[in-house]
Every structure is written in structure tokens, then in C-alpha cells.
């Protein structure tokens, strides 16, 4: 191994990007350089550490066994340099890119903006499928998931709290449905605002965790975001199913009423995934603390 002065930090970042994206061409696109520049950077780093970092085969490149052994040290170097840069630039406000489903992003964005001082947030509305598809791209730093499957080795995966999904209707419709708890059979003829999912260039049905299967519902309006679905429900005699935390505003203004349904109790855990090299540990702790407190307060109605 050569002296430390000959180590280029950009070469470390380039190799780690190849590891994360699993492709020289994908790393080049992410870093906005040519594949040749990526290959040269990896070659310089290989010369520096004295081992072959990439194994090239018929299916492309993969990190060698020797490369896998040095990756933890290189990631530690990358974290250290980024932390040092942030300490040297105290006036620079870090940008944290947050990805979450539409059902919770609108309320999460406000909570983070109000409670996390000294940070800026870029909020990306991504459904669970797209979140997993983009996990290895440089698109987001933090993701909120309703799934206990981790995004991969590059991300932490911690539960931050529990949410509940419920049925909502505007007051006039709620009155016609009768006293609670309402029987699920009563809802078969009531139009539902249905979830939509954009898959590439076509629309498909989304998921909403409702105990009443799609085939047993009467389809009404449809929306690709839960915010739009709530607005449709407040303006029509149609019910909508989704997270209570996302409907707090409409509930407080009495634009919507929660409908208790016999036998329905849908609780789910929200997980926080933070990229291990792009998100500083103190930032991850701050975001987790804010979201955990918000979910706890929401569950108690405070």
C-alpha cells in the first residue's frame, strides 16, 4: 500500500459507487463522468491498496473478495471526510432527501420541517415498488417504509412507530351509514375512492390495506395520492381507507369522520431506512426522534 498522500478521495467514492450500483456504467451515470474515467479511478485505487478490487466476467463486474474486505475501511474513510467537511462548513445547511408513500408524505414533510432545525428536506413521493427499485440510485437518502424488509446492506432499517389505517367519510354519508360499528356488508354498495399506482407508462390498482377486498368494493373515484383521495372523499358520497395520521387535518375540521367498522383493526409499523454513507449518524438520530415522537403523539390524539 502506498503512502496516504497519494490516495484520492474521489477514487474511493468512485469505487464505492460501483459497489453500490453494481455496474461501471451505472456508476458513471450517477457520478456524471464517463465509464473510462470510472475504470481509471478504480485502477488507481487498486494500485494504491495493492489488490484487485473488481472481478470482471461475462456478466460484467463484481467486487472481488479482496475488495469486499477493504470496503468497510473505505466507507469509514468516506464518512470521516464527509463529517469533516460538514464541521468545516457550519453555515451550510444539509439537504436530506426523504422518500415516502403519498399516504404519509404530506404530513411527514410538515413534521420534519417544523421539528428538525438546521436541516433542509427534499421530499419525494415514491410508492414502495419504486422506492425499492431506486434504492441503489442516488435519488434519496432516507426512506419511510411500511415493510419489515430492509432496502439492502447500504441502509439501516429501524422501526419508528406504529400507525393505524381507518375508513373515512364525510359527515352526511357517515350519518346514512348508521350507528357504529358498521357492518362490512353495508359497505359493499358504497363507492370507494380507489388507490392508483403509476407503473412506468400505465396505471394500475394500488394497495391500501383495507380488509374489504377490491373485488367486493364498489369503485368510485380513483387517486394516485392519498391527499387527492381525501379531497375526493370530502367532496362526494364516497368512502376512503388509509392512515389516520394523514387525515388529521380533515378530521379536526370535521370534513371527514372516522367510520368504525365491525372487525376492522389495521395497525402497521413504519420503518426508517437511512443510507449508511450519505446520512450522518446524528442526522439519522434526529429524524428518527422526530418521527417517533410524532407517531406517539398521533396515536394518543395529543
Description:
The protein has 302 residues and is an alpha/beta fold. The chain folds into 3 domains: 4-88, Arc Repressor Mutant, subunit A; 95-162 and 268-300, Periplasmic binding protein-like II (D-Maltodextrin-Binding Protein, domain 2, 3-Layer(aba) Sandwich), CATH 3.40.190.10; 164-264, D-Maltodextrin-Binding Protein, domain 2. The protein contains 10 helices and 12 strands. Strands 3, 4, 5, 6, 10, 11 and 12 form a 7-stranded mixed sheet that branches. The protein has a 3-stranded mixed sheet with strand order 8-7-9, with helices on one face. It is elongated and about 75 Å long. The mean pLDDT is 85.
Helix content: 40-55%
What value does the Rg take, in angstroms?
24 Å
Number of strands: 12
* Topology-level CATH name of the largest domain: D-Maltodextrin-Binding Protein, domain 2
Question: How many structural domains are formed by the residues?
Answer: 3
CATH architecture label of the largest domain: 3-Layer(aba) Sandwich
Mind telling me the CATH superfamily name of the largest domain? Periplasmic binding protein-like II
**Which structural category do the helix and sheet elements fall into?**
alpha/beta
Largest sheet: 7 strands, mixed
Mean pLDDT: 85
Compressed to H and E, one letter per element, the order equals HHHEEHEHEHEEHEEEHEHEEH
CATH class of the largest domain: Alpha Beta
Q: Work out the helix count.
A: 10
The global form is elongated
Kindly report how far apart the N and C termini lie.
59 Å
